[in-house]
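Aim 2, interim progress. The first record below pairs a target sequence with its structure tokens.
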Amino acid sequence: MPDMIKYSGFRWFGFLRDAALRTGIYTGVFLSLIFTAWLMIANRAPFLEPLAMERNILGAALLALFACVPVIRFFRSPSALLLSGLLGWGLFSLTYQIFCFKFVLLEEYYSTFHVFVLGAVSYFVFATISWIGTIVWRVYATNSSHTHH
């Protein structure tokens, strides 16, 4: 009996073997779901209007928490961090653009391009810090093996 059965229909999902792509897609989906829930609660639940500040703080905190998933998972791999983060934030930006068609006041504060650049610059900063950290770690690891006389 073969160890692994190859299904022909699952050939299309071969790209999901890469952890960075998978994490990016999951992050983008979760960010989009959180933003959708936040937007629907803000616009379709008028009885929660007295709690608007708390709602916005909670929504922003949840977005920040789930946006940190690629940073936490790939803190030692800058390229995977950047790929995963940009993919997730790109999916979130696409969701933001779709909602801008329905809720026209969304683009009054931030356009879709501004939202994407905000996330992209953040992920570039974290990837750069991760890259510098891995360089420092490798230099320290190679330097500590030599004895100093």
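The second target in this work package is listed in the same format:
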Amino acid sequence: MDEAVQPELQPNKQSSFLRRVGIYAAVLIVVFLLGFVPMWFKARTSAGSLEVAEQHLNLALIQNTIASAVIDARRGDYEPARLAASQFFTSLGAEVDKGDASSFTVAQREGMKPLFARRDEIITLLARSDPAAADKLADLYVAFRKLIPAQKV
């Protein structure tokens, strides 16, 4: 009789064991999600903040490049000023070409187009070591600053 009872008890033990394993697995998944979900939200928020910070940094680097060119030209260091002005136009062009992914608004991108019209004249003046280049660069810097208001970070 023990042998007959034994097979009947076996499935109950097995289903009880599987039920226990299922409950442990469900509890483990819930505990995992309780830790994962808040961290996922924090990561998304941080990624958004990082993107904004990178845009502000990119604008600051572009502005710093043109300011450096103005200072070098005022000091009579025309070759470093020419290189900085060239870098300014290259960086500005790359940022404007990003379209909607740009750090600039549509209105700002449209306002940048007249700045590019001055590129060849300014680069040529700097290549000739013409002192008038300093004033042209300063005017370019002022025009750029008018298009890009001070950023609050």
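The radius of gyration is 32 Å. This observation will shape the mutagenesis plan for the next reporting period.
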